[in-house]
Amino acid sequence: xxxxxxxxxxxxxxxxRTTTAVPQREIQSIYCxxxxxxxxxxxxxxxxxxxxxxxxxxxxxxxNLYRYVWNDNFSAPVKDLLNSNGSQVxxxxxxxxxxxxxxxxxxxxxxxxxxxxxxxxxxxxxxxNVEFLQENILTGLPYADNTFDFVICRFMxxxxxxxxxxxxxxxxxxVCKVGGYIEFMEKDILFWNEGNFTxxxxxxxxxxxxxxxxxxxxxxxxxxxxxxxxxxxxVIYHTERSVPLGKWGGVLGENYKFIYxxxxxxxxSIMKDCGYNEREWDSIVDKCMKELSDNDGYDKIHxxxxxxxxxxxxxxxxxxx
Length: 321
What we know:
CATH class: Alpha Beta
Number of strands: 10
Structural class: alpha/beta
CATH topology: Rossmann fold
Radius of gyration: 19 Å
Helix content: 25-40%
Strand content: 15-25%
CATH architecture: 3-Layer(aba) Sandwich
Largest sheet: 8 strands, mixed
Distance between the termini: 27 Å
Shape: globular
Number of helices: 10
């Protein structure tokens, strides 16, 4: 790898950061502070990460790294569709909208809509074929059935409970056109070549979130099951990439370790609810990352995609790896 991932910036980050203009009254109503970090303060929202510039920067670096690992922004066979006039694309949980903005520039003939419960997306500077809306998918999307040609949902593990996942996937399938495609990109809290300390810490973390927050951090096996329940996606495709954590993986591994550590430590305010103080949590994260690096550890990123068909009552979905 020739370029340090931490230095790879998309064309949208080479100028001044665009911030969202949100009325003060709205800010006070949907946000709260824990220490110096800002979080969503909505009773029906489970998102665990902060909503601030630090977290937006992490999401940007995360996006750059995964874009490099996959060498593309999607896996579904939709390039011809995106290059045709008038295709409609929906990005669920778009966040600061790196994916939406880059895709809109690459495919100017398509229309892109990004939605998120937190308005961290740009509102002043964006391509003409982009629209952003502050919406909660769990309360229903403001679109008719069969509206979008391509719907993508990326890295929502820390936003949805298991029940939420089923609701969200059903809604995603609803707004996707017959003949259109859906795609999900997720990773689990699961490592390969982990040591004893990391395994114990990971299992404790997984169980704490499952019991106290209703968050399932081993979500990838469930996603195709929820898709299959809709009876409109007879074939579900799955592909994955392994990503090294630490110096053994060269520049990629070092950058992924840095970004992973950053993300884990950005959860520390929430982890207080699970009985950890901030210093203790930071120490656990550092020990796990060191052990994974020493053991040639890695994790896997998953993509699932499928084409929507008419309702097929008696046909079981199957997965192609």
